[in-house]
UniProtKB/TrEMBL annotation:
Transmembrane segments: none annotated. Pfam families: ABATE (PF07336), zf-CGNR (PF11706). SUPFAM superfamilies: Jann2411-like (SSF160904). This is Zinc finger CGNR domain-containing protein. PANTHER family: BLL6575 PROTEIN (PTHR35525). Residues 126-168 form the Zinc finger CGNR domain. InterPro entries: ABATE (IPR010852), ABATE_dom_sf (IPR023286), Znf_CGNR (IPR021005).
Amino acid sequence: MDFLAYAERSAALVNARPADAAALREHLADRPWLQERVTDEDVERLRDFTTRLRPVFEASSAGDAKGVVARLNDLLATHPVTPMISDHDARLHLHVATEDASAAELLIGESLLGLATLVCDLGPTRLGVCSEPRCDNAFVDTSPNRSRRYCSERCSSRANVAAFRARQRAAAV
């Protein structure tokens, strides 16, 4: 189980906001075995879950460590995670749900266990919301000095270009 990958998938799920089963299947394009399980009920459960998960990223972005922990603990209480040991690929490792879990149960479990582990290992301020004004994507900050402010290089470049142009306009006045 790669907890960092699960935390990053959590941010991707918050950003995806799948509107229907087809959109959720598209979001899961790299996991065809999970695409087959997607139902309309999964979409509804995930929509509710991601609505409650986004404030965790917002609290972290605002430096509210207690808020991050409280919100994650509330989600963990609402969606208990039951890790199971598996050996399906000839090595022992953890899964966050049983083989017959729904797509929503699996994604929620991965998200919560990944985020809880990340918060415990790296701290509660390693999650964020993009600082580029036209973007509100969530992200996981794995930078060495906790300095990430943007969800992607694209948003970072956009913000830097906008700041450069603003300085040029101010200098021209």
